[in-house]
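Input (structure):
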């Protein structure tokens, strides 16, 4: 055995203890750690011959990179839609690395850790109050989840036309209807060979909304003259967290032949709050759903699930099966995740989720979700009541989309945000909404409190005066 490896193995406890203490130090001070860094580091791409050993490497990391890492898991990182990690999720994540399973199968011999993944999917279905007729699995993020679901949708559409796209490639135009898809959906369409331009935008509802106008959708469907299509819906949209009307779409589903996909990356968690649950009402009738776990479930990156109705198992298998590997056996008899999603080798991504769900239960998640919504509303009220700012849309759930008041100040939005992020006390991201430059603050982190909002609003008030 290599000397450095042997030494690290002998002193594994010191290495892991040092990492544990460092981790605890980081987590204890996460609220004080900057949310932005601007430093640039000279890169050193030369690999040392003998190696440093684990503890010296930790020192090297600390000397060079530790300060580069921001408090994105902390309470005031409101850009994009960034969650944190609950204590139990961190424990599960550590164990995922330590046990280092290649999660595929639920029966037979060898690694059977997919049993844990299957159970975790059931727990999530329970959390979301969804029926059990979905096949679910873990992928790296909602982008890959959208990709996975739309890949099965593509195969379904082919079948409607008597084609097998998975085997023979795309030979037909694929009709896609949608209103306000997330950019990751367009990316998925590009990766699937469908094309990111190849979609028909349905009108959105009147009154500063991003959700589908159902009447217009009905007209667009009729214009397709019975051709099959894929409907991509949002629950909710990333800019203003608008939700498509899943009840109305459920009714259309009875009338027309289409694949219905929901991108519920973070909006799906509205179901954890009895007050907001109705936003997702009817979603159980969708054919496929994408949900992120590294956002509102507050588990570490990278973690998301796809849910595809079990009745499409064969289409899913046709899409993802490893066809040319007799040693894997009959995929219909020996279930293996590698035949139902993009990756072959994969980590036990379910374990942090299993830990966090078991540790905090339905009540824990209800409180996390309701707290985030309360924080968004608290911050939204500050924007509404401050003449220097204006809301670009109603605060519907957990995101505040706002700008500087007055058209004359549009040119100042970017500089204001740069200065605000430059304080290192908060991080928000720019956006464009209805042709206006804006700023988004998304609340999904379990740690955020009123004191955090007040700290940020004080900084904003200070900056706006300068
Ligand atoms: C609605 C929606 N869909 C998809 C995604 C992509 O998620 P991920 O970055 O986890 O791939 C996001 C990310 O913010 C999102 O908000």
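Output (sequence):
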């Amino acid at each position: 055995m290599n000397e450095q490896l042997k030494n690290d193995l002998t002193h594994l406890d010191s290495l892991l203890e040092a990492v544990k203490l460092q981790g605890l130090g980081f987590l204890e001070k996460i609220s004080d750690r900057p949310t932005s860094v601007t430093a640039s580091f000279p890169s050193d791409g030369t690999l040392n011959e003998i190696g440093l050993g684990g503890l010296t490497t930790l020192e090297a990391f600390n000397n060079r990179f530790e300060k580069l890492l921001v408090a994105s898991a902390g309470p005031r990182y409101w850009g994009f839609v960034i969650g944190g990690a609950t204590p139990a999720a961190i424990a599960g994540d550590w164990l995922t690395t330590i046990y280092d399973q290649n999660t595929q199968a639920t029966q037979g011999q060898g690694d059977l850790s997919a049993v844990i993944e299957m159970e975790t999917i059931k727990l999530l279905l329970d959390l979301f109050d969804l029926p059990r007729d979905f096949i679910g699995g873990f992928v790296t993020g909602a982008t890959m989840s959208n990709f996975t679901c739309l890949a099965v949708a593509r195969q379904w559409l082919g079948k409607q036309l008597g084609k097998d796209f998975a085997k023979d490639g795309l030979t037909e135009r694929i009709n896609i209807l949608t209103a306000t898809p997330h950019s990751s959906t367009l990316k998925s369409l590009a990766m699937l060979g469908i094309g990111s331009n190849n979609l028909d935008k349905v009108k959105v509802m009147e009154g500063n909304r991003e959700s589908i106008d159902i009447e217009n959708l009905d007209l667009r469907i009729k214009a397709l003259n019975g051709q099959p299509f894929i409907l991509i819906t949002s629950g909710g949209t990333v800019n203003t967290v608008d939700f498509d009307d899943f009840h109305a779409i459920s009714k259309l589903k009875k009338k027309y032949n289409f694949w219905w996909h929901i991108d519920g990356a973070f909006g799906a968690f509205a179901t954890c709050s009895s007050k907001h649950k109705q936003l997702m009402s009817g979603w159980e009738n969708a054919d496929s759903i994408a949900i992120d776990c590294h956002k509102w479930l507050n588990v570490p990156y990278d973690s998301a699930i796809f849910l595809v109705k079990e009745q499409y198992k064969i289409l899913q298998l046709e899409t993802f099966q490893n066809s040319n590997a007799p040693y894997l056996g009959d995929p219909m008899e020996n279930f293996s995740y590698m035949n139902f999603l993009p990756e072959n080798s994969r980590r036990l991504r379910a374990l942090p989720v299993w830990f966090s769900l078991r540790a905090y239960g339905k009540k824990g998640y209800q409180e996390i979700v309701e707290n985030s919504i309360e924080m968004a509303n608290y911050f939204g009220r500050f924007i509404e009541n401050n003449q220097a700012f204006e809301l670009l849309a109603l605060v519907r759930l957990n995101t505040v989309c706002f700008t500087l008041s007055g058209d004359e100040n549009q040119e100042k939005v970017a500089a204001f945000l740069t200065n605000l992020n430059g304080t290192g006390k908060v991080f928000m991201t720019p956006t464009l909404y209805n042709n206006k430059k804006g700023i988004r603050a998304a609340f999904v982190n379990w740690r955020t409190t009123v004191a955090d909002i007040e700290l940020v609003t004080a900084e904003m008030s200070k900056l706006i005066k300068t």
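Notes: The domain at 90-355 is CATH 3.40.640.10 (Aspartate Aminotransferase; domain 2). The first strand starts at residue 134 and ends at 139.
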